[in-house]
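User: Just a sanity check before I run the rest of the batch. Below are the structure tokens for the first item. I only need the designed sequence back.
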């Protein structure tokens, strides 16, 4: 049972992470911002913004760093 509960939690987290990524991308597009302009404003490389918008959080390093970028 524990394994299945863990598996369910992992799937739920993945879905939630993709939902966050999609909302962030939608917000950027709604404001008419290009990725390059947002990257300059946030002082982060374009690749970081693209990684966030794809929901690839593990590629951003420590979770605290990822939370700082979107928080």
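Assistant: Here's the designed sequence for the first item:
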């Amino acid at each position: 049972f524990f394994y299945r509960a863990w598996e369910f939690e992992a799937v739920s987290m993945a879905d939630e992470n993709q939902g966050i990524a999609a909302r962030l991308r939608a917000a950027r597009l709604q404001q008419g911002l290009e990725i390059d302009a947002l990257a300059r404003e946030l002082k982060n490389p374009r690749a970081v913004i693209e990684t966030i918008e794809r929901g690839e959080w593990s590629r951003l390093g420590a979770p605290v760093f990822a939370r700082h970028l979107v928080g």
